[in-house]
Amino acid sequence: MAADPDPGADEPDQNTEGVEERTGRLVLKTLADACGIDELASATEAVSAYHGNNYLPLLERFYRSHRPVLFTLVDAIELEATSADRSVLDAVEFVRANRDRRSDWISETTPVEVDGQNTTVSVDVDAFASDAWRKVLRDRQRPGMLARRHLEVCVFSYLAAELRSGDIAVAGSDSYANLHAQLMTWDEWQPLAGISAPRPVSRSTRPSWWRTTGTS
Question: Please, which domain of life does this record's source organism belong to (predicted)?
Fold first, then answer.
């Protein structure tokens, strides 16, 4: 006759429950002491950046307090590309369209609503971001996704650089105007330089060597 099963065999050990409960409290305390999981993740990124000799992941913590002002700024001004390359401008429009998202990772192509119409916006970081930035923005475990917070820092950094170089201009601005639009045309420059328009050479004004060669 088989022995009756131990009625307490399937019951959890009270000592085990106590250990698990205590471990959970310690984990929560550690997170609280580190100012939350976001700060702990930032600290982890800082260590990784130090060992990888890449400071770019560290910029996001300094960017947070300036984020509202930067979005207000790009909403208030009209940006224009001074060349055929619009990759940074398109990236600015992408982060503007996705500013209200809260997820840590965002798809490179996202559906958005613009003026009541459903559309999609895309960003191509390969078109402008450096290799160091691409390593920060992408994760092999998340193909087609980008680190949203770091993407904003990256885009605004490149926007500042493009404004300084003149590759992006601010419509109506003096300091950041389109330099190509400010260049004078040849017709505008001639009178200021005291240069008259060239005249065609007639037969009577041709040099003597021209006539002696027998050229008509």
Answer: Bacteria
